[in-house]
Design brief:
Strand content: under 5%
Structural class: mainly alpha
Radius of gyration: 22 Å
Shape: elongated
Largest sheet: none
Number of domains: 1
């Protein structure tokens, strides 16, 4: 049984409520991880000059490229593995059995294979994290006069970004059977 089924059994609620609870947790967990990381960074520099709130707000800019490139990586799988399905859909956009352009029965191969698509996804996630680290580095140099404190404030962020990379790549590597109606 999957995660939704486990939540449903544990909470004694239906599948929709279980899915909603799971999605809420998935949405809140990264914010909580970011807040915890920022709290650790503020504690570790102990200078009192830059507190939790200021670090939380300023370092948030460094997470935006991570989110953008993760989004691109996730959707690159759809583009490369399912993009060819656009060709038959052009002839029958409403699913009524039409063949407007003579392409309704065309079933092309995926634009890229799984290994190549995975390589693109990994590259995109890594590029996003590199941009995020560069931005975090620049922010730290702006926030702290002491370069040692600036670097110390970055260590927890680096740890969080490595964990996000591993988690994001693991999620993207999971089989997406539910998309094909085999849930």
């Amino acid at each position: 049984m999957g995660i939704v089924g486990s939540i449903s059994r544990t909470l004694g609620v239906g599948e929709l409520a279980s899915f909603s609870v799971g999605m809420a947790v998935v949405c809140v967990a990264p914010i909580g991880a970011y807040a915890l990381t920022t709290k650790v960074a503020a504690w570790w520099v102990r200078g009192g000059v830059v507190g939790f709130r200021e670090l939380f707000v300023n370092y948030a800019w460094s997470v935006l490229p991570v989110a953008l490139f993760y989004h691109l990586a996730h959707n690159s799988m759809h583009l490369f593995m399912e993009g060819q399905d656009v060709v038959p859909a052009l002839s029958d956009p409403l699913g009524r059995g039409w063949d407007l352009f003579g392409t309704a029965d065309m079933h092309l191969q995926p634009l890229l294979g799984q290994a190549s698509t995975w390589g693109v996804q990994v590259s995109l996630v890594l590029v996003g994290h590199l941009f995020g680290l560069v931005i975090a580095h620049r922010i730290s140099r702006r926030l702290f006069d002491d370069p040692k404190q600036a670097t110390r404030s970055l260590v927890p962020m680096l740890g969080m970004m490595v964990l996000l990379s591993i988690g994001g790549l693991w999620l993207m590597h999971l089989d997406m059977n539910m998309r094909m109606g085999r849930m």
